[in-house]
Design a protein that fits this description.
Structural class: alpha+beta
Number of helices: 10
Low-confidence stretches: 144-151
Distance between the termini: 56 Å
Radius of gyration: 21 Å
Strand content: 15-25%
Order of helices and strands: EEEEEEEHEHHHHHHHHH
Number of strands: 8
Helix content: 40-55%
Length: about 260
């Protein structure tokens, strides 16, 4: 059985378990964390005390902490994604699930959940982007009670942009950035996206690509350009550069240097 886990001390509130083959949980058990579960193939019976239902692909189930449950297989089930979220952290961002569990049947939510999980498991994705993908999913599904004092959002967004323009080559997570501006992470994401139309990780990636473009003009080896502009490796730079400029870094550098 193939499996994979995402767990990082900097994002200690979340843990993701991926299972290629889903096995039954035949005994009642609970989790200390809030749990979100999805599968891509097959079907299961989920049982909560006197309540049971068939759980299918294109659905997600959210199970509150300390709620007894078990699962049996109807048909062979594959590609299971289980996220565990610490309730004490969720309360700090003003989210708390009141019910014992919720079954969500919207295909679009299932699709966004799987995309978010695949992002968390991808070693070539920055921690900042993983964090933002998680919060973007939460914003698209959960409802948050905003306790944030209203600040002039346009001015605030410009201050955040100025900070990112100065720090985009440094490693940080959204929680660090939010604390710098005395904001919740949820409010931080909303303010920046509303003003500039880009998620924060996309804005930073654009800054890195444009900085790499400057370095390519100086005839540095492309592998050094990738390292100096904050990319994981040369292939990460290649993908990001081509997505923005429709040309590879090597092709760009060749054209530039041929004219010198």
């Amino acid at each position: 059985m193939k499996s994979n886990i995402f767990k990082n001390d900097k994002l200690s509130f979340i843990e993701l378990l991926y299972l290629e083959d889903v096995t039954p949980c035949s005994k009642n058990h609970t989790h200390e964390e809030l749990t979100i579960f999805a599968i891509k193939e097959g079907s299961l019976n989920l049982i909560f005390n006197d309540t049971s239902f068939e759980f299918l692909p294109n659905q997600i189930v959210i199970i509150n902490n300390n709620i007894p449950h078990l699962a049996s297989l109807n048909t062979q089930s594959k590609d299971g994604y289980v996220i565990y979220l610490k309730k004490e952290y969720l309360r700090t961002i003003d989210f708390d699930l009141k019910s014992s569990f919720e079954l969500v049947k919207q295909k679009s939510i299932h699709k966004n959940f799987i995309k978010m999980c695949d992002c968390l498991l991808d070693d070539k994705v920055s921690l900042l982007e993983k964090e933002e993908k998680f919060f973007s999913f939460c914003l698209s599904f959960f409802s948050f009670e905003s306790k944030q004092i209203q600040i002039e959002e346009s001015s605030l967004a410009l201050d955040i942009k100025k900070y990112l323009d100065e720090k985009y080559l440094e490693e940080f997570i959204l929680d660090d950035l939010a604390k710098s501006f005395d904001l919740s992470v949820v409010h931080l994401i909303r303010v920046f996206k509303k003003e500039f139309g880009l998620p924060i990780h996309s804005y930073i990636l654009n800054k890195k690509v444009h900085f790499a473009k400057e370095l390519l003009s100086s005839n540095l080896p492309i592998i050094e350009v990738a390292q100096n502009s904050g990319f994981f490796d040369q292939s990460h730079l290649n993908r990001s550069f081509k997505r923005i400029f429709q040309i590879t870094p090597k092709e760009y550098q060749k054209h530039i240097l041929s004219k010198c």
